[in-house]
């Protein structure tokens, strides 16, 4: 098995390389009808990655990943009616994508928007303000 290369993205400006020694792959095959050859069986590939003890991640990245996966383990499965090789590629791509998303910094907080001009809140605020002004009429002296 080769090292897993996670492409660059937000939070990973240079990308990330997970050593093959930290990844665990499990395969299972079930022959199709008529006991076809290995290339046409339904095969399942599970790719298991231990985020908590990975040496490839920095402390900040590990903390972000553990927020997403509190158990510290990520298991990605690919299972379709195709070869093990293609399932392995699919599982690796999914794991790389999920790692990139998990290690990205959170988006900046959005400022709350003002109520729009014709909004119900704004009309009710204006109504309350007019009522207050009316009640003060005649009492206020300059």
Set out the fold topology.
Blueprint: E1 4-6, E2 16-18, E3 23-30, E4 42-50, H1 59-68, E5 73-80, H2 84-103, H3 120-136
Antiparallel strand pairs: 1-2, 3-4, 4-5
Mean pLDDT: 78
Radius of gyration: 28 Å
How many H/I helical runs?
3
Number of strands: 5
Low-confidence stretches: none
H/E series = EEEEHEHH
Order of strands, main sheet, comes to: 3-4-5
Helix content: 25-40%
The largest sheet is: 3 strands, antiparallel
Shape: elongated
Estimate the strand proportion.
15-25%
Which class of secondary structure composition applies to the elements? alpha+beta
N-C termini distance: 86 Å
Describe the structure.
With 142 residues, this protein is α+β, with helices and mostly antiparallel strands. Helices cover 33% and strands 22% of the residues. It contains three helices and five strands. Strands 3-4-5 form a three-stranded antiparallel beta sheet, covered by helices on one side. Strands 1-2 form a two-stranded antiparallel sheet. The mean pLDDT is 78.
């Amino acid at each position: 098995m080769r090292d897993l290369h996670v492409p660059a993205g937000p939070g990973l400006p240079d990308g990330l390389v997970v050593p093959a020694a930290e990844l665990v792959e499990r395969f299972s095959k079930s022959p199709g009808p008529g006991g076809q050859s290995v290339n046409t069986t339904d095969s399942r590939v599970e790719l298991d990655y231990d985020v908590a003890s990975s040496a490839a991640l920095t402390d900040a990245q590990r903390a972000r990943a553990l927020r997403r996966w509190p158990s510290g383990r990520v298991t990605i499965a690919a299972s379709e009616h195709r070869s093990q090789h293609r399932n392995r590629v699919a599982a690796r791509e999914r794991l790389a994508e999920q790692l990139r998303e998990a290690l990205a910094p959170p988006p900046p907080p959005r400022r709350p928007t003002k109520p729009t001009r014709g909004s119900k809140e704004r009309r009710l605020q204006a109504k309350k303000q007019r009522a207050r002004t009316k009640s003060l009429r005649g009492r206020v002296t300059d």
